Every structure is written in structure tokens, then in C-alpha cells.
Amino acid sequence: MQGLEALRAMLLIRAFEHRLLARPDRGFQLASSGAEAVAVGVCAALGSDDTLLTSGRSIGPALARGLDPGAVMAELLGRTGGPCRGRGGRGHLAQPAAGFFGAHAVVAGNLSVAAGVALAMQSQSRPGVVACLFGDGACGSGALHETLNIATLWRLPLLLVCDDNGWSVSTPRAAALAPQRLADFARPFGIASESVDGMDVGAVADAARRLAAHARAGLGPAFLECASARFTPHSTATRETRTRAQLEALELRCPIRAHAGALRARGELDDAALAALEHEARDRVDDAVAFAEASPMPGPEELLDDVG
Amino acid sequence: MSADAPPAPRVFFREAIARALAEEMAREPRLLLLGQDIGAFGGAYREFAGLHARFGAARVRDTPVAESAMVGVAIGAAAAGTRTLVSITYMDFLMLALDPLVNYGAKLRYKTGGQLRAPVVVKTTAGAKGQGVAHAQCLEAWLMGVPGLKVVAPSTPADAYGLLKSALREDGPVVFVDHKRLFPVAGPLPAHEHVTPFGRAQVVRDGRDVTIATHGYMTVVALDAARRLAHEGVSCEVVDLRCLAPLDVGTVAASAARTGALVTLEEGQPSCGVGAEVAFRVRDAVGTLRVARVGALPAPVSSNPVLEAACVPDASRVVETVRRLLDPARRAAPPSEES
Fold first, then answer.
1. Contact of B335 with B277, CB cutoff 8 Å
2. How far apart are CA A6 and CA B7, in angstroms?
3. Residues of chain B below pLDDT 50
4. pLDDT tens digits for A88-139?
5. B67 to chain A: nearest residue by CA?
6. pLDDT tens digit sequence for A248-300
């Protein structure tokens, strides 16, 4: 999924989030705008045998993985038409049967779980790899060290992908993490790692494919660092702490604009084609919203279902 | 059991655990065991003895000292179709792993609308035995109130065997709590395969005057206290809860309704403890009831033998509490409960 398909996937995420965040009933959300290329690039490297785990910032990755936008919209709005019947919401979106093992909204909380999913694949002699997407904030957690250690020892088919948007809520990366290069966290383990421009979907996809192939070949885990950006506040409930000038500078690096520019330069895209793709994305979001709105909220009598 | 049935062989607690694990490993070829020193070493209490040799290093895996990741790995593997038991050598260290256990494993089935389940057993060893403040705690009460989590704490080899086998067939996460002082204990274990269902307490001594509800090693202490009280003409009924979540309130309530008095006994802290929960729910079910609880005194459990013994309950404290509860004159004198 590079070329026009990658553009189509990124436009869908952007349009989807734009529509979701404009809704008065959106509730608490963590947007992926600015990091579309990371989600789409990583998912380009994943096939049907593979599965993806993410942090709570899961909307872009879920759509990039191919989940039905209507089902995702329903889940995010708490409707029973969501794959988790509206219980998971944005932080806990999951549809394992579609290769999206799920989001988990505890920072770094999905790392060891992903290693466990990889252990199950390895133990069952299944062919896939497990990709786990997390933010730079997770790199300050001991869970990353523990997971890298065990995954390396046991050669687990695990692709760890750090979506480094440079901020943990209001704390800049430099105030939270000592290493300059986050892929260096993988160095002591001697595993494959790369650092790429997370605003370049092609670069992310190429690196993700190389590292996934490494994990697929039984060589153990790999680490991919993607320098991306977050165009919106940490969450819909968080104050923006960056200046307008900072945000405008970030938006100049917009991964969608960058990819569209590259496609134009290669003669694969013109204004009409771009407009058509944008229109298609809006249509898909219209359909998603219609599906979600037609789906009921759960009744309180469902509260105790599936507790344990 | 008929009079001419052969007596069940007596085995040590650790042997009962190893037998249950071996049978379930054979029954479920995907079952993995993870933990520190559970491989060739055979576990801190030799409760994993023989499994590494029989089932191999891929299924009986020594792990790094990384409780949080190991519980996360175990739950992830379980959710992806590989049932897993993970051993946390000391229950104190389970605190390091509460995030994957409570935030992920216990909620997984619920939050995914039933798409995923985490059939994982976290086996851990609680209790004071001379090892100091961070190797001694009984934290099972913390876990009882977590929706989606089941908690069992056997007191006999037979229940260790039967409850562990049940735990390994559950759909969701189970914390299996054993106790350092139970490992040297031998008891009958029938040769035939059996499982012990969750949510059923067991009356382990019949009595008329007072019900003592307890679990784990404190069952041994309660039975000791009951024998001493029998010499004074006080008849104690001892109920081994066995399973703390789900809790079998009915068995305790039926006993307490007969005796009219309930003493709860636990080794852990009684504040917000197992006994507080049991006493409330039993009194709710029974109505009028005399209640007292016994637990550790509100101090860390030192490795100092004098201080350790002063902190955790023993039979003498149970005896004294029962006497005070049953004697109206003494009961009038505060405090009305021991804690």
C-alpha cells in the first residue's frame, strides 16, 4: 500500500477524525492527525497472518489496518455496532479477527501483551508477526526494557514501532527521555532497528517491511522509530500548549500533503484525482456516520455481560 | 467413602501442584508455564519438579526477573490462544504486575465485547515465614474486588490440586494463591483425577457455637484454635473459603445462621480485608449475628521472629477472640474486635 492507496488511506483517517471531532457527542478522543503516515506505512507491511496492537491513539491505525469505518465510528461513539459493542471506545478498540488485536490506553501497557501474542504465534507455529505501535512517552517506561529483553531472548516475531510525536501531553520529549535517538533503546539487545521520517509514508512502509521480514524470518524482534507529529492537542480534553507558530510549522510537514506532492511529481496524481480521492474519503465517512447513528447505544441491562 | 475404600495416598502440597500441572500440560498441549526458576530448578518450593524434564524448555520456561512483563506476556499469549500459567514467586512481587493483570487481563473480555478472553493463571505464594517485609504479604483482599478476576487460595493438597486444575480450565484470569507454610504440609490426595469447582467453601470442622471463616494457611491455624477451644467446651465450625472470588457466602451464612457467631480469620491486613467482606455479606444474609475479625496487626511483617509472630495471627489470638465474642461479659469490654 504505497502510491495512491496510501494516499487514499491517509485521507480517510484525516476525514474520519475531522468529522468525529466536530461532533458534540464525540466524548473523549485521542486523534491521530499528523501521524497518518505511521499508521498507513506500518499497516502496509502487515498481512492477514499478522496482527497489530496500539496505544490508545488507535483511530488511524485501526482504519489503516482495514477495519470498517462504520464499525470504528460506532465503537468510538459507544454504539453497539462497534466491534466491542461500544465498550472499548477509542482507547480499547479491538477487532482481532480483522488483524487488529487491539488498543490499550495505558501508556506502555500493550508492549508486554504484544510480546505474549507473539509468543503464542511462535508456540503455535503460526507464520505471522505482531506489530505494536506506541508513543515516545512509552519509551520512558520499564515495560519497554523488559519487553525488549524477553522478546530478544525468545526471538519473538515482534515489530515494535515508536510513533514519536515529540510530546507526552505537555512534556516535550527532551524533558522526558535521555536518548537523542529512540531506536537506540534497542541497541543493547543487538536487534534490527531503524529511524525514519514518520511523515513520509513510503519511508515508513519500506522500513516496516524490512523489519517485519526480519521478524518473520525468525530473527527476533525489531524496532522502528518514526518521527511524526501530532496536529491536535493530546486529547479532546487537553489544553493545547503549543503556539500557533509551532503548529503551523508542524503542518508544513503534513504527511498527506507530502505524499500527494510526491505523487504529483511522479505524475501519478493531479488536481482532479486528488479532489476525487478527497470526495471518496468524505463519502466513506458519511457512510460510517450513518452506520454509527443507526446503531443503538447499549442498554444498562448489558452492564454485567462478559465481565468474566 | 465406604469403610473398606483404600485410604487416599498422602502427598505434600507441592506434589499436588506438580501433579495438577503435569496432568493439565498433558491434557492441553498448548499450555505454557512461565516463571522464575521453574525450569530445571523446579520452582522455589519444588512445586514444578519434573515438569521441565517431561515437557521441555519451550513449555516450561524460566524467565527474567521481570514480573510486570511476564504477566503481560502470559496474558497476551493466553488471549492469543495459548493458555498460560505464570508463577510469581512471592505475592509481594505481584504488585509489579498489577497493571497487566488488573488493567488488561481482568478487563479484556469485557472491553472487547467478548471477542477476547485471557485464560491465564497467576500462581503466587503468600505468607510470613521469616523472609521480611517484602517477602511476606497476603494481598488477596486487594484482588477480590476486581471485576473479571477470580481468586483461589487452597489450604490442603487435595484442594491445591483440584482448584489448580479448575483454574487451568477457566476462560479468564485466575490468581492462585498458595502459602509458604503449606508446602511442608502433607494431606490425602485421591489417586483418581478430579477438579474442584470454584465458588464453593468447605466446612472442614463441624461445630455449634461459632463459625470461623478463613482461607489458606490460616485454615490450619483455625483448626488448631478449634481443638484448643474444644477442651473448654466451645464447639467451633471451621469453614475454609477456598475460593475468594467468587465468594461462597451461602455456605458461611448457613453455618453462621446455626451458630449465631462469626469470626473471620486472615493472615493479611483486616482493614478492607477478606474478613470485612465476608462478615458484611454474611451478616447481610443472616441478619443478627455476633461478628469479630482477626488479621495481622497494622505493621509490616518483619523477618525478626519476635515481631513476625507478634504481627500475624496465631491460634492463641483466635482462641482469645472466640472467647471474647462468646462471653457477653467480656464482650461488653471494648474493643469488640481484634484487628
1. no
2. 72
3. 1, 332-339
4. 998 999 999 999 999 999 999 999 999 999 999 999 999 999 999 999 999 9
5. A146
6. 999 999 999 999 999 999 999 999 999 999 999 999 999 999 999 999 999 99
- Across the interface, of A84, A121, A149, the residue whose CB is closest to B112 is A84
| Catalytic site positions of B | 67, 135
- Judging contacts by C-beta atoms under 8 Å, the chain B residues touching residue A143 are 68-69, 72
**Comma-separated ranges of CATH 3.40.50.970 domains in chain B:** 10-188
State mean pLDDT over A189-212: 98
pLDDT on residue B261? 98
**Domain B202-327 = CATH 3.40.50.920:** yes
> pTM score, two decimals?
0.95
pLDDT tens for B101-148 read 999 999 999 999 999 999 999 999 999 999 999 999 999 999 999 999
- Determine, for residues B30 and A123 on separate chains, whether the beta-carbon distance falls below 8 Å: yes
**Which 115-154 residues of chain B touch chain A by CB within 8 A?**
115-116, 147-150
Rounded to whole angstroms, the Cα distance separating B63 from A183 reads 25
Chain A residues touching residue B112 (CB < 8 angstroms):
83-84, 87-88, 92, 94, 96, 102
* CA-based nearest distance B51→chain A, Å: 17
| ipTM for the complex shown | 0.96
Q: Which overall architecture, per CATH, does domain B10-188 show? A: 3-Layer(aba) Sandwich (3.40)
What local confidence, expressed as pLDDT, does residue B239 receive?
Answer: 99
Q: Which helix (H) or strand (E) holds B177?
A: strand B174-179
pLDDT of residue B332: 46
B106 contact A CB<8A: yes
Say yes or no for a CB contact (<8 Å) between A87 and B106. no
Report the alpha-carbon distance of residue A307 to residue A278 in Å, rounded.
41
Question: Which range is least confidently modeled, A15-19, A28-32, A39-43, A189-193?
Answer: A28-32
- Tally C-beta pairs within 8 A across A and B: 145
**What HEC string does chain A produce?**
CCHHHHHHHHHHHHHHHHHHHHCCCCCCCCCCCCCHHHHHHHHHCCCCCCEEEECCCCHHHHHHCCCCHHHHHHHHCCCCCCCCCCCCCHHHCCEHHHCEEEECCCCCCCHHHHHHHHHHHHHCCCCCCEEEEEEHHHHHCHHHHHHHHHHHHCCCCEEEEEEECCEECCEEHHHHCCCCCHHHHHHHHCCEEEEEECCCHHHHHHHHHHHHHHHHCCCCCEEEEEECCCCCCCCCCCCCCCCHHHHHHHHCCCHHHHHHHHHHHCCCCCHHHHHHHHHHHHHHHHHHHHHHHHCCCCCHHHCCCCCC
Q: Which domains are present in chain A? A: 3-296 (3.40.50.970)
Nearest CA in chain A to B113: A84
Say which DSSP state B191 is in: S
Q: How many CB atoms lie within 10 A of CB A267?
A: 7
Residue pair A131/A52 in contact by the 8 Å Cβ criterion? yes
**For residue B7, what pLDDT is reported?**
84
| Residues carrying CATH 3.40.50.920, chain B | 202-327
pLDDT of residue B122: 98
Mutation target to probe the A interface, by most A beta carbons within 10 A, among B115, B146, B152, B247 is B115
For residue B334, how far is the Cα from the chain centroid? Answer: 31
- pLDDT for the residue numbered B330: 55
